[in-house]
């Protein structure tokens, strides 16, 4: 059996990014997910990736999940 999914994180970079209607320098990281379609549905994988991104954007949110 292989891996069901592999999550990769890119380097954190300061980039111009739209936030609340204004352009500002923000710390941005690229997330990518490779997964086995025989084990995981695309909707589940996208939901997982969205949740990981939300936790990285607001780490205190993890305390609410405990």
Helix-strand makeup class: alpha+beta
Rg of Cα set:
15 Å
Helix content: 25-40%
Number of helices: 2
Order of helices and strands: EEEEHH
- Main beta-sheet strand count, sense and barrel state: 2 strands, antiparallel
How would you name the oligomeric state of the polypeptide chains in this document?
A: single chain
* Total of domains: 1
Strand order of the largest sheet: 1-4
Mean of pLDDT:
89
* Contiguous uncertain segments of 5+ residues: none
Beta percentage is 35-45%
Overall geometry comes to globular
**Alpha carbon gap, first and last residue:** 31 Å
Number of distinct beta strands: 4
Structure report:
This protein is α+β, with helices and mostly antiparallel strands. It has one domain. It contains 2 helices and 4 strands; from the N terminus they run ββββαα. The strands form 2 sheets. It has a two-stranded antiparallel sheet with strand order 1-4. It is globular. The mean pLDDT is 89.
Feature tags:
two-stranded antiparallel sheet; 2 helices; two-stranded antiparallel ribbon; 66 residues; alpha+beta; single chain
Helices, strands, pairings?
Blueprint: E1 5-9, E2 13-19, E3 22-28, E4 31-35, H1 42-57, H2 61-65
Antiparallel strand pairs: 1-4, 2-3
Provide a short characterization of the protein structure.
By secondary structure, the chain is of the alpha+beta class.
């Amino acid at each position: 059996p292989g891996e069901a999914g592999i999550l990769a994180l890119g380097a954190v970079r300061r980039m111009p990014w739209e936030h609340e209607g204004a352009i500002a320098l923000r710390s941005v990281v690229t997330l990518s997910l490779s997964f086995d379609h025989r084990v995981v549905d695309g909707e589940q994988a996208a939901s997982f990736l969205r949740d990981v991104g939300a936790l990285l954007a607001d780490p205190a949110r993890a305390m609410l999940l405990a």
